[in-house]
Structures are given as C-alpha cells and as structure tokens.
Amino acid sequence: MNKKIFQLIIAFGSGYLMISSIQISVPFEFKEFIVQLVLSPSSFFLFMIYFLISFFLHAILIKDVIEKTNLLKYGRKVNTISLLLCYSVFISIVILCLISFWQTMILVIFSVIYGALSTDLKKQPMSVE
Predict the structure, then answer these.
(1) How far is it, in rounded angstroms, from Cα 70 to Cα 93?
(2) What digits encode the pLDDT tens for the residues 39-49?
(3) Domain presence at residue 125
(4) Number of folded domains in the chain?
(5) Which of 26, 28, 55, 127 is 20 to 30 Å from 121 at the Cα level?
(6) Is residue 122 part of a domain?
(7) Could you list the residue range(s) of the whole structural domain that residue 20 is in?
(8) pTM, 2 dp
C-alpha cells in the first residue's frame, strides 16, 4: 500500500514538473513550439525525463485499476484501500488537466495505451469456484 501511495505522489509530482518545464501558448503554434525547443534544449530534456517517469507510473496504476476491476467483476476479493489508491490515479489526472489540458492529454493517451497493453488478464481466474 505504501508503494501505491509513493507511486501516486511521484507520478503526480513528475506530471506537474513536466507541465511546468515547457509552456505551451494558447492558441498553439507549432513554429513557436519548435523554436522554444531549439533555443532551450535543457527544458525539453527535463520535459522528457518528467514525462517518462509520470507516464510509466500512471501506466502501472492504470494497469492495476484494470486488473483489480477485472477481479471484482468475477467476484474475487480485492483489498479496498489498494483499489481506492489505484482509482485515485484518475483524481491525479483531473488535477493535471486543470493545470494544462493538452500536455496532460498526451500523458493520459500514452499511459492508458501502455497500461492496457501491459495488462495480463489471462493470469487471473475468470470464474468463482
């Protein structure tokens, strides 16, 4: 359980640092974005490091949500606190969306795809015996 709390805090913190490392102007102009990356490669490097950390941790939590929900679907017992901690990843995503929508959507798309693809539902029992 402490591992899930740690993952959630680090995922949110690195997501927030990812958002704050590169500012995207509204309306988005691709030329200005590329110029910003060329003139400031260190901020882009930090952005990518924070993105990878947040991406992997959010994906792990989303994978756990899928697996635990599947266990509940088939009547298996799941630790309620662990399940709530896994579902709190969606609260983290909503808060990050309030800070910067487009950067968070990029993070969410990658995390959901990776989390869903890394889920192994064949290992889990499908029926209650």
Answers:
(1) 22
(2) 888 888 998 99
(3) no
(4) 1
(5) 55
(6) no
(7) 2-117
(8) 0.84
